[in-house]
């Protein structure tokens, strides 16, 4: 069965993965004041946590590209989405600076993996004349995710899922 415009559906999925990637990435900064207060982390320690993430992210670009080449785009993308999701979930369990730093250090490599995978998706699915547009579309996901994160993360942190009770007719 041939799906019309399949490659555009695939780039849409990569776009959505990029949105999710950046919502995850921006969850901590959106809640920084609350997290710093609850965990007793000062501004310098918070900056160190962010820098650990960025260091791991930077180093992971090379290894994540190699993993994508070795195991394939689909498996690699799934692996990295699960990795960064688990690392972000674990961040919620942080009890202080050491555990927060460890979680963010683990988040970096998971999040770095999407970009080599996304580039490979485009190279595999798109002819040269359409690659720039496809890259522009999935890259837009990063900006969209960063812009949407505060509007998703802060209400979830302050109200939880209380809105779902009324939506489901239980409120």
Question: Quick recap of the structure?
Answer:
The chain has 171 residues and is mainly α. It is built from eight helices and no strands.
Can you tell me about this structure?
The protein contains eight helices and no strands. With 171 residues, the chain is mainly alpha-helical. Helix 1 runs parallel beside helix 4 (73-91), helix 1 (6-30) packs parallel to helix 7 (128-159) and helix 3 (43-71) packs antiparallel against helix 4 (73-91).
Order of helices and strands: HHHHHHHH
Radius of gyration: 18 Å
Largest sheet: none
Poorly predicted runs are: none
Report the helical percentage: over 70%
| Topology, number of strands | 0
Number of helices: 8
Quickly give the structural class: mainly alpha
Mean pLDDT over all positions:
90
**In angstroms, what separates the terminal alpha carbons?**
45 Å
Proportion of strand residues:
under 5%
Quick one: overall form? Answer: globular
Q: What are its keywords?
A:
globular; mainly alpha; single chain; 0% strand; 171 residues
């Amino acid at each position: 069965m041939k799906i019309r415009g399949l490659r555009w559906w695939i780039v849409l999925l990569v776009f959505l993965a990029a949105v999710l990637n950046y919502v995850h990435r921006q969850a901590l900064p959106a809640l920084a004041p609350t997290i710093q207060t609850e965990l007793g982390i000062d501004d310098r320690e918070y900056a160190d946590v962010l820098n650990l993430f960025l260091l791991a992210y930077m180093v992971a670009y090379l290894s994540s590209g190699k993993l994508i080449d070795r195991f394939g785009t689909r498996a690699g993308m799934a692996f990295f989405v699960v990795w960064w999701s688990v690392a972000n979930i674990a961040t919620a369990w942080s009890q202080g600076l050491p555990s927060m730093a460890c979680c963010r250090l683990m988040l970096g490599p998971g999040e770095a993996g999407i970009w080599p995978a996304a580039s490979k998706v485009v190279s595999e699915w798109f002819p040269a004349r359409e690659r720039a547009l496809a890259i522009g579309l999935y890259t837009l996901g990063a900006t969209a995710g960063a812009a949407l994160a505060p509007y998703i993360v802060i209400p979830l942190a302050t109200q939880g899922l209380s809105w779902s009770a009324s939506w489901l007719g239980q409120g």
